[in-house]
């Protein structure tokens, strides 16, 4: 299997893949399948992204409700979350992402073991569901006495026109002291989960952040945005931060509480893990409260070290910097011992990653640490800036689907706006190479001629497996079994397949070991796909006959 990835020319792969499509679709997908090229000033080719999936295509994408309820708000434990919709939406967004949480004591509030839903039936679809929603809120308050309730809209709620915001207002008036807010995150809003992220960011900003001006104790306080504690990632990041002497005020939203959210604007820095899902909140908090932000990444041991150094440099305290270096040295000694051994075995093996809106980038670094090469990668729902870097933001054409999601007008807070660094300090930092509001995107970090595929579909995945036979594929549950039946190991990078953490230093060690185990497991070589021995199980494409 040596160097199989170089056997197929990428341009030829692209051309042959597109040849199967009707002309109009081929033209569109042609702009979403890119052979990478990094030139001069980190110039990368333009990619078409955040655009509707053509009906009939078996996409990997999810819906706006998933992005809002499942992704951004889901991991917080004490905001009581009610899905207004049919039971399936609530049930399938209930912990399948493996977002974990750790209440302070066994008695502390934790709603995550519950899936709460209005369980809409035909009656409500015909006569309206607001009454049932009010009853659900009342029931939840009587049973659980929450401080905050989030209501999440599903497709039918939008179609029948229930006014979830009016219900939230009415319930809040009736129960002063309980913050009730609703999200217009109907599944069909926008073209993917990405729209739901934006809806969630807006509401968290207008109705939650800023309600309490009490800071947490700690000298170097910052928030982590876009870290959702999948498989315990946030626990590992908390461990490292604490060891360095840093205080995480709030994480949005892994292992978080409502109290931390409402006072998050008192922290001095926002760092962003997942740019796609939460860059809006960072931008808005900077405008309103003067909190600077920059991108960090705790996936990969080297990236974790780099991120810690950047956070320490931001605060600029010499004791903090010294302690951070000590922690990195200690942790890297453990990481390197495992890395060297595994790298010797994995060097040169190939991987292709197709995940949401940030992991397809971040995990390339972890693979590179054990010598593995990314031959193809893509996002399900990222925007051009996640591929090409934020420098393209001014050039992104806003289409009707994006316009559908409100862009909030934010002004600085009359009394609470407080720049954490003076303009002169910022200029000085920038002159010495420190960057704020930075994300340079995935493509710049990818090799020459690597394939970059946006909103990849089932057919294209099958073609990719045939053409390159990568040593491992990273994607989600929808892809998992097709890949494995072809005799290729597959690692879910959404839920981590029952494992984790993969963030930070301990996480890197876990990941190296897991990948080593998978790419060297001989069980996959013994697999024979059912359609290989029963040809009647294989299908062809209608438009091709
Ligand atoms: Fe951000 Fe995420 Fe991701 Fe995402 Fe997701 Fe996720 Fe993801 Mo699944 S917030 S974009 S919407 S890093 S749930 S924790 S793994 S698709 S790459």
Folded structure, characterized:
- By secondary structure, the chain is of the alpha/beta class.
- The chain has 22 helices and 14 strands.
- The strands form three sheets. The chain has a six-stranded mixed β-sheet, sandwiched between helices.
- Helix 20 links the parallel strand 13 and strand 14.
- Helix 6 packs parallel to helix 8 and helix 10 packs across helix 21.
- The protein is globular, with a radius of gyration of 24 Å.
- The protein starts with 9 loop residues before the first helix and ends in a 12-residue tail after the last helix.
- Bound molecules: FE-MO-S cluster.
- The site of FE-MO-S cluster (CFM) has 16 residues, from helix 3 and helix 12.
Summarize, please.
The chain is of the alpha/beta class and 545 residues long. The chain is 43% helix and 12% strand. The strands form 3 sheets. It has a 6-stranded mixed β-sheet with strand order 1-12-11-10-13-14, sandwiched between helices.
Notable characteristics:
545 residues, alpha/beta, Rossmann fold, 6-stranded mixed beta sheet, 4-stranded parallel beta sheet, 43% helix, binds FE-MO-S cluster
Detail the topology: elements first, then pairings:
Layout: H1 10-19, H2 23-32, E1 33-35, H3 64-73, E2 79-84, H4 87-92, E3 116-117, H5 122-127, H6 130-144, E4 148-153, H7 155-160, H8 164-174, E5 179-183, H9 193-207, E6 221-227, H10 233-244, E7 247-253, H11 258-262, E8 270-272, H12 275-289, E9 293-295, H13 301-315, H14 318-346, E10 350-354, H15 359-369, E11 373-378, H16 384-388, H17 400-403, H18 423-431, E12 451-453, H19 458-468, E13 472-475, H20 477-485, E14 490-492, H21 504-519, H22 530-533
Helix pairs in contact: 1-2, 3-9, 6-8, 9-12, 10-21, 13-14, 13-21, 14-21
The structure holds FE-MO-S cluster.
């Amino acid at each position: 299997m040596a160097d199989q990835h170089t056997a197929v020319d990428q341009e030829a792969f692209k051309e042959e893949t597109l040849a199967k499509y009707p002309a109009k679709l081929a033209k569109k997908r042609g702009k979403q399948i890119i052979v990478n090229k990094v030139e001069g000033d980190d110039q990368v080719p333009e990619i078409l992204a955040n655009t509707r999936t053509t009906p009939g295509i078996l996409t990997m994408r999810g819906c706006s409700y998933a992005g809002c309820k499942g992704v951004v708000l889901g991991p917080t434990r004490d905001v009581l979350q009610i899905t207004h919709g049919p039971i399936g939406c609530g049930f399938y967004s209930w912990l399948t992402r493996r977002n974990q949480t750790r209440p302070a004591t066994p008695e502390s509030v934790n709603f995550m073991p519950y899936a709460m839903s209005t369980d809409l039936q035909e009656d409500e679809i015909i006569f309206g569901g607001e009454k049932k929603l009010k009853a659900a809120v009342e029931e939840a308050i009587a049973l659980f006495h929450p401080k905050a309730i989030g209501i999440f809209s599903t497709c039918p709620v939008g179609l029948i026109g229930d006014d979830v915001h009016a219900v939230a207002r009415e319930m809040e008036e009736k129960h002063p002291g309980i913050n009730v807010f609703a999200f217009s995150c109907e599944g069909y809003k926008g073209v993917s989960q990405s729209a739901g992220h934006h809806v969630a960011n807006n509401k968290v900003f207008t109705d939650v952040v800023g309600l309490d001006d009490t800071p947490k104790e700690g000298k170097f306080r910052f928030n982590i945005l876009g870290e959702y504690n999948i498989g315990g990632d946030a626990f590992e990041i908390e461990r490292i931060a604490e060891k360095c002497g840093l205080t995480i005020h709030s994480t949005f939203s892994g292992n978080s509480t409502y109290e931390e959210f409402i006072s998050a604007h008192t922290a001095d820095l926002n760092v962003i893990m997942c740019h796609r899902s939460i860059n809006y909140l960072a931008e808005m908090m900077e405008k309103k409260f003067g909190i600077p932000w920059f991108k960090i990444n705790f996936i990969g041991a080297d990236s974790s070290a780099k991120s810690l150094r950047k956070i320490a440099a931001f605060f600029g305290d010499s004791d903090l910097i010294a302690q951070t270096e000590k922690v990195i040295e200690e942790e890297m000694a453990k990481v390197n011992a495992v890395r060297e051994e595994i790298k010797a075995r994995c060097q040169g093996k190939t991987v292709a990653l197709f995940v949401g809106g940030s992991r397809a980038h971040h995990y390339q670094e972890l693979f590179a640490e054990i010598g593995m090469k990314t031959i193809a990668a893509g996002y399900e729902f990222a925007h051009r800036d996640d591929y090409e870097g934020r420098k393209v933001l001014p050039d992104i054409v806003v289409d009707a689907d994006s316009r559908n999601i409100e862009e909030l007008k934010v002004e600085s807070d009359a009394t609470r706006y407080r720049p954490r660094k003076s303009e002169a300090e910022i200029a000085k930092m920038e002159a010495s190479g420190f960057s704020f509001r930075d994300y340079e995107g995935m493509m710049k970090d990818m090799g020459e001629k690597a394939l970059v595929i946006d909103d990849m579909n089932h057919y294209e995945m099958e073609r990719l497996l045939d053409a390159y036979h990568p040593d491992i594929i990273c994607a989600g549950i929808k892809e998992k079994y097709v890949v494995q039946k072809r005799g290729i190991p597959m690692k879910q990078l959404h839920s981590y397949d029952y494992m984790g953490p993969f963030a930070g230093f301990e996480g890197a060690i876990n990941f190296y070991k897991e990948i080593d185990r998978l790419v060297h497991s001989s069980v996959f070589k013994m697999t024979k796909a059912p359609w290989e021995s029963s040809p009647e199980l294989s299908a062809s494409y209608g438009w091709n006959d």
